[in-house]
What does this fold into?
Amino acid sequence: MIFVGSPGAGKGTQAAKLAEYLGVPRISSGDMLRETIASGTPLGKQAEPLMGRGNLVPDNLLIALVRERTAQEDCAQGFVLDGFPRTVRQAEGLAEMSDGEVSDWTVFSVQVPREELLRRLSGRRWCPRCQATYHVSSNPPKQDGVCDVDETTLVQRNDDKEEVVARRLEEYEQRTAPLIGYYRERADMVEIDGNRPMEMVFADLKKHVGVAA
Ligand code: ADP
Ligand code: ADP
It folds into this structure.
């Protein structure tokens, strides 16, 4: 399963719920990149300035990262992709690594108006240890500013600051939105109204994965 949506559309939130529900791994390209940065690898050093400015990281790096991750044993029964592919080139790379069986995939295109995206991104808080995501008002932690899972102090991601968000939304429009047309022609494409409470969006997703809600 694949999620295509703007930054802030709720891909990470929904992908995590769906992966747990289906008992398969969630593969988040953003989380993997942030891990490579935290561990100081050469890939992390290359990705960090690009992510900091809100630009996409080169396709070949992402394709290699996802290829390696999806080859692991826990992905044998399927997986939920969050944040990948983000360009047509990446989608082609994914098709190649999966022997081209694109018609077997469910692609969720999650739509949310810009004003709500900005509200979500500015209020997003993140646990630098376990990468859990919260929102100051829509999805607050139990204790203010502290991760429910491991009690780490929550932070705002550098790229959720206003000046970087504008660039990320541009990258989405120019390079990721064309994926909607790409998958409409090739896969089982489901349009989801993401501008609703999280549980309502999730109930909708469950209907489309063919498991009783
Ligand atoms: P993405 O991975 O698409 O960038 P996230 O899942 O991280 O999006 O969600 C962005 C922010 O919006 C987070 O702070 C999250 O808690 C919040 N959020 C996610 N889904 C909803 C929703 N349906 N309604 C309100 N806020 C949401
Ligand atoms: P969001 O949840 O807001 O959509 P992510 O955590 O998925 O953000 O991504 C954060 C940043 O990581 C992106 O702005 C981009 O720089 C980089 N990134 C993540 N996934 C990809 C990808 N598939 N291709 C290129 N860059 C990516």
Notes: The chain has one domain: 2-114+162-208. Residues 2-114+162-208 form a domain with the Rossmann fold fold (CATH 3.40.50.300). The first strand starts at residue 2 and ends at 5. The beta strands are 2-5, 26-28, 80-82, 106-111, 124-126, 133-135, 188-193.
